[in-house]
Amino acid sequence: MFGIGLPEMIVIFAVALIVVGPDKLPDLAKSLAKGLMEMKKTVNQLKENLSEEDDTLNEVQRELKQTAADLKERVLDNETQTWSQKAIEAPVDEGEADKDKPIDLSPENLRPWEEDAESTPQDKDNDSPVADSSPETTPADDTDNAERKSAK
Questions:
Q1: What letter would DSSP give residue 122?
Q2: pLDDT score, position 121
Q3: What is the pLDDT of residues 50-89, one digit of tens each?
Q4: What gap in Å lies between CA 61 and CA 124, rounded to an integer?
Q5: Residue 64 and residue 55 in contact, taking contact as beta carbons nearer than 8 Å
Q6: 19 and 27 in contact (C-beta within 8 Å)?
Q7: Could you tell me the pTM of the whole model?
Q8: Using CA atoms, how far apart are residues 67 and 75, in angstroms rounded to an integer?
Q9: Nearest-angstrom CA–CA distance, 12 and 1
Q10: What is the pLDDT of residues 100-147, one digit of tens each?
Q11: What is the pLDDT of residue 21?
Q12: With b meaning 16 or more CB within 10 Å and e meaning fewer, what string describes 33-42?
């Protein structure tokens, strides 16, 4: 008990005999024993109270779990009934066949900065940041221009 052997017990008894005296030592031992017994009873009562509370808490926990399961079942049944009623009430239209097709998320009208981003980039060989403002002409364009001038 607590790592105290017979030699230590003899030393403790001798010190107690010297300090308390031979007349009061039996009364001290008796009161010490009563104190230990009271402490033991209190600890046992506390254990019993905690086990009773644990049983009560376990019962309440089981009831709460059961109530939560019932509530969940009711809500799911209610949602199922609501969805099935909506399906019955809503007529089937031709658009439902399109449900399996992917949805096109691209906007119909592009914003100005999106149009700029999608336009063809300038030649990367051109090192100058400013683009040539004069349109390049091809030999086919020259013949078209000459025909227009002669028609006037």
A1: P
A2: 65
A3: 998 898 899 999 999 999 999 888 888 777 766 666 655 6
A4: 73
A5: no
A6: no
A7: 0.35
A8: 12
A9: 14
A10: 677 766 667 777 777 778 776 665 555 555 555 555 555 555 666 666
A11: 86
A12: eeeeeeeeee
Measured distance CA(49)–CA(55) in Å, rounded: 10
Rounded CA separation 35/41 (Å): 10
What is the C-alpha to C-alpha distance for residues 109 and 118, in angstroms, rounded to an integer? 13
d(CA 10, CA 32) in angstroms, rounded, equals 17
Alpha-carbon distance of 88 to 40, in angstroms, equals: 72
Residue with tokens 């402490």: 39
When pLDDT is averaged across residues 35-39 and rounded to a whole number, the result is 95
pLDDT for residue 34 is more than 90: yes
Lookup result for tokens 């790592």: 3
CA 22 to chain centre: 70
